[in-house]
User: Which sequence fits this backbone?
């Protein structure tokens, strides 16, 4: 049971959507839903003009796409959000409400929402550019070409909606409940070009497709196998969909710019030591499922630099599970090929054997 709980937290289990989201663009391969964005942009314009109405926000936050966000972030009450947005332009930072389990989310996002309030027309233009990219004829062909390289041949990539909102959270893109999400404001937050949207789409769909494929065997993993397996989730997504460059794992396409993980790559030796020590503790019984879950949250998912305090806005775009997962599983693909890679995903203990050989040879 402890392993299943940990698996569900880190793997973002996809169990199908609630069927209520409104459709905006329906292509042959993906249902793209964006209809909450114009509503929020209208509210920001009205707030700036002194014409905002509380009922506007009630309607906006009753939109199915925001309901999706609330479920993802575990937000049960919308009232603190409504109070916050009604005084977005006047509230003191010290008075920004906290949300259970997401204490710093609104505070960390505040400067981005202020920017949207000051210049809603900029975000209207950004929204229009995003729609233009999505409706280009070859957008999803490019996204799916990247995606399929990083999946086993029998992986299912059908019927996965893409939802975009002006997000209440800090994640740029994520996979949850059988759908994927992109934050319109995330393009600026993370200095990400709208033209690179196909890579982001492919990355999030990769998560859901891997979940579908691994669902038949991952529930039977031991704690040690589960720990190793979890690195394949983000590691393979950035390897194949984002062209990440690691210490041992090479960018999949030399003709494209590689995703820069330099800060984390420079700390590979420390990360690898923590990885091996964790494996040893799990094998000896010194580390329980609860302790591994705590370590995963505090260490592997941490996006703060060494110089930062935990209450500061994270400076890193990715956490250690991304960079180490890319090296661990990505280098196996580089050296041994796709068949060996997906065999290692199925049998995670093999992954450590292969990787130790790669590290020993290349060091």
Assistant:
């Amino acid at each position: 049971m402890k392993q299943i709980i940990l698996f569900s937290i880190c793997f973002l289990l996809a169990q199908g959507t609630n069927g209520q989201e409104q459709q905006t663009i329906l292509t042959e391969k993906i249902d793209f839903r964006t209809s909450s964005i114009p509503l929020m942009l209208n509210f920001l314009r009205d707030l700036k003009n002194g014409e905002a109405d509380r009922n506007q926000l009630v309607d906006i936050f009753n939109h199915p796409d925001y309901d999706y966000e609330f479920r993802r972030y575990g937000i049960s009450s919308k009232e603190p959000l409504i109070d916050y947005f009604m005084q977005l332009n006047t509230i003191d930072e010290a008075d920004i409400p906290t949300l259970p389990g997401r204490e710093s989310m609104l505070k960390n996002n505040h400067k981005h929402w202020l920017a949207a309030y000051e210049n809603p027309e900029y975000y209207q233009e950004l929204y229009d550019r995003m729609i233009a990219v999505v409706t280009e004829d070859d957008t999803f062909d490019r996204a799916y070409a990247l995606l399929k390289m990083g999946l086993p041949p029998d992986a299912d990539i059908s019927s996965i909606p893409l939802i975009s909102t002006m997000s209440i959270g800090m994640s740029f893109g994520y996979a949850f409940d059988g759908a994927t999400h992109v934050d319109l404001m995330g393009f600026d937050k993370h200095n990400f070009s709208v033209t690179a949207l196909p890579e982001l789409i492919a990355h999030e769909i990769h998560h859901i497709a891997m979940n579908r494929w691994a669902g038949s065997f991952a529930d039977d993993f031991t704690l040690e196998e589960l720990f190793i397996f979890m690195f394949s989730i983000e590691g393979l997504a950035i390897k194949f969909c984002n062209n990440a460059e690691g210490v041992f794992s090479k960018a999949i396409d030399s003709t494209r710019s590689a995703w820069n993980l330099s800060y984390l790559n420079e700390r590979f030796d420390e990360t690898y030591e923590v990885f091996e020590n964790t494996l040893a503790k799990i094998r000896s019984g010194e580390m329980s499922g609860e302790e591994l879950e705590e370590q995963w949250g505090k260490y592997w998912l941490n996006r703060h630099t060494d110089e930062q305090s935990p209450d500061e806005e994270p400076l890193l775009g990715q956490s250690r599970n991304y960079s180490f997962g890319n090296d661990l599983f990505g280098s196996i693909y580089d050296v041994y090929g796709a068949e060996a890679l997906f065999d290692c995903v199925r049998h995670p203990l093999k992954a450590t054997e292969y990787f130790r050989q790669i590290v020993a040879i290349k060091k």
